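Reply to dn_fold:

You asked what the input looked like. This is it:
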Amino acid sequence: MPFDFKTIESLSDTARNVLNQIQKDGPITKQKIAEQQQLTMSTLNRILASLEQENLIITLGVAESSGGRPPLLYDVFPKRYVVGVSFGALRFNLTITDFKNRVISDQRFPMETSFTPEEFVSHVSSLIFEQLEANHIDAKDVLGIGIGIFGALDYETGILTRPIILYLNEHWIGANLCELFEKATGYICKSDISVNAAALTEQYYSMGAGYSNVLYLNCGVTIRAGFASNGRLIRTKDGQDTAFGHMGICIDGERCSCGNYGCVECYSSIHSILKRFLSASKLGRISSIRKNPTDVTIQDICQAAEEGDLLCSELLTHAGMCIGYGLSNYINFLGPEIVIFSGLLMDLSPLCYETAVETATKRAVSDNIRFVKANPEYDSIAVGACTILIENLLTGRLGV
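and this is what came back:
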């Protein structure tokens, strides 16, 4: 019998806040909880007893004493797990974490573009139970499933809208993956945009820890961004993850796939860089890459640039400058304290990354911003799917 989501849903706001603090800061003493939550000891004792009775928290022994009886330490119950499913154009991740969002298992699988939503859910549901068994996790100890969406999502209904169909097929228009997964698995499901969840994951569990405002930028086939402010997500009006990529930076620029002109994505996505390389080759520009221009990959271009290829260096420098221009606008408007760059383009091209940072730094109003590359050993997109479920459990909401 799966864990009953209503166990946490029925908690009072105060009890949820206590559980949230224990999940983030545990092991933690009762005194520290009371101070932060501004609770009397009698009230806190009742809440802790209730949470222990529901097997949501445990006592882990004692902390060092400064005199008198050593204080007890509290943490979340260890045998509580979350499943995360994040998917995009080429692959999907199936991730399992514990209740503190520590990764137990993270598997990648190819994404079949012929899948209907029903076929995808059926396939992934089978994999979920296989992975739970392989990791010796009892199905009843799973809190639920978080789903990280690549594209656009109606947050009120959980229905997928437009961009996903560009990479899959028309059957995905109007699909409600949460409903399908709940029917297939029996677990409660929550969905959100994957880059949003990645920004929140970075803020709570990785490089964004200690920063109030975190911008997570993913540069790959598209240019996507998520923004977390003090544990809340700042969303676009239409629920899309590509608002950054479709920011206009050139008033008379190229026509974009969105119908507008001069968007960041016209110059800085992997697709646009490959398109520009092909156009330059047709115009007679010379490159050290000894391939048919139609067969050239972004890996080829990035490697050639590192080896001094002039054309490839120009393309990546220009792409980095355009990202930097768009980024400076974001910085001036939203005021992130840290910008975390991720995605294949940033992984492959130090030149593009350094140019983007240099351009944004010169144009941004604030000069007190930290720029970093995402930790290559920590996939916050994949872990972010689990964060979606955890934060919905602990707060009842993710965005504003």
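The mean pLDDT is 90.
Hope that clears it up.
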